[in-house]
Amino acid sequence: MKTLDVKGDVCPVPVLKTKKALEELEEGEELEVIGDYKPALENIKRFVENNGYTVVLAEETEDGFRIVIKK
């Protein structure tokens, strides 16, 4: 599983970085995105669902969020 750290970024940067990272993955691989700008969680989730990827896990954490996406 590849991990993408978007801490310190605010929208739309986390979504754009997630899109780029997903493009580099093979079908079936998973991407973990961690960040500290909580509104980005919903934006990333929306992007993932609208583009045919699967949200494996999405959660708010003490210092931000974590989302796991399957390509």
TrEMBL record:
Pfam families in the cross-refs: TusA
Domain (UPF0033) ranges: 4-28
InterPro entries: TusA-like, TusA-like_sf
Gene3D superfamilies to which the protein is assigned, alphabetical: TusA-like domain
Protein name from the UniProt record: SirA family protein
Organism this protein belongs to: Methanocaldococcus vulcanius (strain ATCC 700851 / DSM 12094 / M7)
Lineage: Archaea, Methanobacteriati, Methanobacteriota, Methanomada group, Methanococci
